[in-house]
Amino acid sequence: MATTQECLGALEKLSDNLANADGDVRGAAALDRSLSCHVTDLDTTFAGRLQDGRIVVTQTLAGPPREKADIRLAMTGDDLVAMVDGDLHFAKAWASGRVRLEAGFRDLLRLRSLL
Fold first, then answer.
1. In what order do the strands lie in the sheet with 44-51?
2. pTM
3. Of the residues 3, 19, 29, 48, which has the maximum number of CB atoms within 10 A of its CB?
């Protein structure tokens, strides 16, 4: 089972990947939205923002998200680490229910190039 620190490191690596992307991925990551990632097996939520092509984690909270973020993710820590490392494809994990993504319709359309 991935630790809280490993999950935070995965989010930092994802942030770096988004910041260094170009084309459609860079455009999709350029949103300015609140973001939460609930790591279900750790019952920990990382809350922050997706802004300027980066993920900025501002809080690590025990339990599920306290506020409804614009973009909400939920998954196990192992799945988060595996996705960022390229061992698990987001679309397959999402389609099988291993990852939950909730966002407004417009945000989902913009985010689809990240998937």
1. 54-62, 44-51, 33-39, 71-75, 100-103
2. 0.90
3. 29
